[in-house]
Structures are given as structure tokens and as C-alpha cells.
Amino acid sequence: MSDSVEENPSPPQPDAGKRVVVIGGGLAGLAAASALSSRGMSVTVLESRPRLGGRASSIIDRETGETIDNCQHVAMGCCTSFRAFCEDTGCADLFETQRELHFVGPPGQAKVVRFAASSLPAPLHLASSFMKMPWFTLGEKRQIAFGLRALAKDRTKTDRSFQDWLDGQRQSETVQRRFWHLVLVSALSESLDRISLRHARKVFVDGFLASHAGWQVSIPTVPLDDVYETRISAALRKHAVDIHVKAGVQRLLTDGRRISGVELRDGSEIFADEFVLAVPHNLVKSMLPDDFAECSDVVLLDRLEVAPIASVHLWYDQPLTELPHATFVDRLSQWMFNRTVLASASPPPNQSPLPLGGEVAVSAAGEGENAGGCRLQVVISAAHDLSAMSEQEVVAKVDSELREVWPESCDAKLIRGRMITEHRAVFSPLPGVDEIRPVQQSPIANLQFAGDWTRTGWPATMEGAVRSGYLAAENILNRAGRPDTVVAPDLPSARLYRLLFS
Ligand SMILES: Cc1cc2nc3c(=O)[nH]c(=O)nc-3n(C[C@H](O)[C@H](O)[C@H](O)COP(=O)(O)OP(=O)(O)OC[C@H]3O[C@@H](n4cnc5c(N)ncnc54)[C@H](O)[C@@H]3O)c2cc1C
């Protein structure tokens, strides 16, 4: 079949009352639902699981009864659409922006360096913090500065692996491991040879070079379910979004030309005018009508590879550190999030900025139940190699690394440790990956794709997911004759950055 199914679609007519079905209640689907419902469209969200949030979600730990996240999710300051989504859905107060990061030096030099911006304009704002890192020699710091400059200036259109690019930049093995790998593995969850130059450049330019605030990190102070499942679903329902959980869609129905409806797993059918398919990329093909499943956009999705992320949850009988978070150099542990300290900054449940009519309650079995103790969460991205270790081995290794960093806590008793691995956490940002990511407008005129895997220019992130939902919403608004911009503008680049690198 041809890739363009509706070749001469009739001119769009203004229509605020379109019925839209969103399939998938992850961030992409929720963002599309929020954008469309707040613009007067009638939206139904169908989610197969018992809760919203998709890959950004929580579980109840069976032993402690606490609500813990599948993995800590953070957003950088450059994630402007994600920020706008949180503001629009009234959950921005559930995040705390960290204006200081804490880098812990490699084994043997476990000094904590506080990393914060100076008043100098970007791209110089982080230079003084960076100069304080004693585990880099002066020569290595110069290598990094030259590497960053070369990356900012590099605008080659052809994509290749970041490792390949780095090999041409005279960066020592130590610099590659302790700087480039350290930043990129957390941001993109892959090793340098499996990261595209384009995506690596985006992380450094958008996050650390172009603007003063792009690097700051926003961390939820409550479990993810309290953000996405509780707060956001309440906000959407206020806009009359009809949300159905445990409502798995079996397949999309077609009248031969367009999508007419969806068939749920229980055999029921729902009909609508427009559809947003916001499920993980590996499920798309099986849900499309046979004729459409062979479109090149869909077939290419088979080539998207995925990477695992593991999170290790540790309960101690006393605090190990007062730091809310830390980044580790040259260790198995990559990021530590101190859930006990972070939770202490959460707003009281009855102080919501939204008039939510009592619909929202922060989880009864929330965080901080371990009185006098602490709970830490350690993230290990690109966790391909962890499959060679048992859960106990990983927990023991992480525990010993934390004790080495904070030796004063040697008396602390590890009460419980567990690891959660998401094997299909993110798509791998391999060279050329953007060419196999479909745009949101599917070959079927009234069907939009949404999900972090669609073409947004962003890696697999909450920002990428929200952008995809917003872009899908923009297409639907456009088709309804009501064009509108939903995607938030990027942070403006600093003048000095433009002067040096434009
Ligand atoms: C361990 C881990 C750590 C991460 N850390 C970060 C981080 O720190 N920062 C960051 O920005 N991003 C992070 N991410 C990535 C981020 O979670 C994702 O990019 C984002 O949540 C993807 O949202 P989505 O809506 O595109 O997809 P999903 O979240 O996968 O949503 C798809 C939804 O579709 C539903 N669905 C599937 N089949 C059906 C069906 N048949 N019918 C109806 N519904 C269906 C699913 O249940 C799911 O809810 C992390 C991801 C993981 C897994």
C-alpha cells in the first residue's frame, strides 16, 4: 500500500467538538490529552495498566509497604515542554529544582565537589565549578574545554557514533571515561559507541553550553504516581477527559481509508474522529490494521534498539548523607537520590495549588516511613552488563561504594536492598536513529503517533514524550482548522554562546 493513504484530504473545517481517543496513558498520551482537552476537544484516554504514567511510575514495595518509583526520573532545565506540561496540569510544585549538583570523585579521591553556575554568562557559567574537580589534571581540563568547543561548533549533517567523533578530538581515555561517558550515560543510557553524535551534541549544547539554566535538574519530591497518576489525572478530569485504566486496546479499526475506532481487549468498541497512538514503539505494528502495518514508517520501527536502566533501592537505619543527590565518577553507581531528604521538601498534601476538590491525596504509604533512617535510590543507566550479576551482588556493590564515599556512616545498617531493572527503558540513540523515528502524523490522516520514540529531535526522555504528545495535538488542531502552537519554545541561547558558536 502507499504510505500516503488519504491523498487529497478535504480542507479542514473548524471543529472544537472533535472526539479524540488517546491510546496509552504515558506522558506522551497524557500531554496530548491535556493539550486537546484544554482547547475544547472531547478526549478519551485508554490505558491498559491499572494506572497512568507509563514508564514513569511507582510500585508498592511489598516488604516495607512504601511507594517507591520504578526509577528516579529527573528533568533538566532545558526540558521546556515538560515544564509547561507540569504547570498546565498543576504538578510543578511536586518538583524541586536543584541549583547545585554534587560530584563525588573516583575511588581513592572521594571528595564531593559542589557544582553550581557562577554569574558569568553561558557558556562560561559552569567553568569555575568544573575547575574545582581535582580528579582532572589541568591538561585534562584543557582537553575537555577544547572538546566542548569543537562539539559546539560541529554542525555536520551526517551522523556518526560519538566515540568515532571523540577519537578524532585528542581526548585521553581518562577524560573519555570520567567526563564524556559520565554525562552521556546518565542522559542517554548508552555507551559512547552506541550514542549518535547528534544526540550527544544536544545534551551538551542544550544542557550545559547554550543557556544559563539548561543544566539544572528538577527532581520530584513525591513518588511518580503522586505526580502522574494522582495529580495529573485529577487535572485532566477537570477538563472532562474520560480516563479508562485497565482498558487495553486490541487493535485499531478502519473503514478502509481512515481509522474509525478501537477494539478493546474485552471486545467492546469505541468510535471517534481522531486517534493518538501513544503506546511503546514495539506494540504499534500489532495494533494497526494489516494494510497499514506494512507502511515504511512502521516497518522501520523494528530497527529501534532499546537499553536497560536499573535502580537500586536501599533502606538504612540511619542517614548516610544529608545530600539530596550525588553523581559518582568511575563507579558502578552513577547517581544517588536521597529519597528521605527529597521527600522532606514535598508540599503537604492539603496544600495543592490547584482547586482539586479533594480528589488528590499524596500516597498514604508514602516516603519517609523508615523513621530515623533513610532510603536512597541509586541509578545505573545502560545496565547491559548487570545481567552478569545477581541482585544481591549489585546491592552489595552499591552499598560498599556508598560506604566508601561516606565512611562516617560505617555503623549504618542496611535494612533492605532491592533492584528494579527496566529492560526496555529507553530507545538506544544509535547513529542515524532519527531517520527511523516516524513523525507524529502517521500515513493515515486521522491517526497520530506519539511517544518518546517518535521524531522530536529529543532522546527518550519525559521531554521527548511530552513534545511528541504536543506535536500530535498540534496536528489534530491543524486538521480541525484551529492551528495552535503547543510545544513550548526552547530556552533562549545566551548572547555570548551565539557570538562564539553561531
Ligand atoms: C528506568 C527508567 C528511568 C528513566 N529515567 C528518566 C529520567 O530520569 N528522565 C527522563 O526524562 N526520562 C527518563 N526515562 C524515560 C521516560 O520514562 C520515557 O521517555 C517516557 O516516560 C516515555 O513516555 P511515553 O508516553 O512515550 O511511553 P510510555 O511511558 O511507555 O507509555 C505508553 C503507555 O501505553 C500503554 N499501553 C501499552 N499498550 C497498550 C494498549 N494495548 N492499550 C492501551 N494502552 C497501552 C502503556 O501501559 C503505557 O502506559 C526513564 C525511563 C525508565 C524506564
Describe the structure concisely for a colleague.
By secondary structure, the chain is α/β, with parallel strands linked by helices. The protein has three domains: 19-48 and 246-303 and 433-479, FAD/NAD(P)-binding domain, CATH 3.50.50.60; 58-76 and 306-427, Polyamine Oxidase, Chain A, domain 2; 118-212, no CATH class.
Structure report:
With 502 residues, this protein is α/β, with parallel strands linked by helices. It has three domains: 19-48 and 246-303 and 433-479, FAD/NAD(P)-binding domain, CATH 3.50.50.60; 58-76 and 306-427, Polyamine Oxidase, Chain A, domain 2 (Alpha-Beta Complex); 118-212, no CATH class. Helix content is 30%, strand content 20%. It is built from 15 helices and 20 strands. The chain has helices at residues 27-37, 80-88, 127-131, 138-153, 162-167, 173-188, 197-209, 224-238, 281-287, 290-293, 296-300, 339-343, 391-405, 462-479, 495-501, and strands at residues 19-23, 42-46, 58-60, 67-69, 75-76, 95-98, 101-104, 112-115, 217-220, 242-244, 249-254, 259-264, 269-271, 274-277, 306-316, 325-328, 335-338, 374-380, 414-427, 447-449. The strands form five sheets. Strands 8-7-16-17-18-15-19 form a seven-stranded mixed beta sheet. A five-stranded parallel beta sheet has the order 10-2-1-14-20, with helices on one face. β7 and β8 (112-115) form a beta hairpin. α1 (27-37) runs parallel beside α8, α1 (27-37) runs parallel beside α14 and α2 crosses α14. The longest helix is centred in the C-terminal third of the chain and has 18 residues, at 462-479. It is globular. Residues 1-14 and 350-365 have low confidence and may be disordered. It binds flavin-adenine dinucleotide. Flavin-adenine dinucleotide is lined by residues 23-29, 46-49, 54-56, 70-71, 73-75, 248-249, 278-280, 283, 309, 422, 425-426, 451-452, 460-465.
